[in-house]
């Protein structure tokens, strides 16, 4: 999991890993962040059962965080192919361009922040 070790240095000297930035930008809970880290590091598709097993949590504990990650566009869902009988198993994976998504979203935040700071500065 090399990407977890990447650090970003802030002007005051604090260093945080990239996933701390994901957590802040997207308002992720600890469980959402752990699932996202797993899906990024796996570079494959995992079922809810696979996720639960890998993180040593119950299958039911995966449902809400995975749905929130889906709604935030950080995770995608697919149906597992090859099962003829019964409901197809759902599998999850990190959005393929997840780092590009974060860069775009961070740029938008910076642009919006600069506009607001500029307005405040003009009024002082």
Automatic annotation (TrEMBL):
Domain of life: Archaea
Gene Ontology MF terms: DNA-binding transcription factor activity
Sequence ranges assigned to domain HTH arsR-type in this UniProt record: 23-104
Protein name as it appears in the record: HTH domain-containing protein
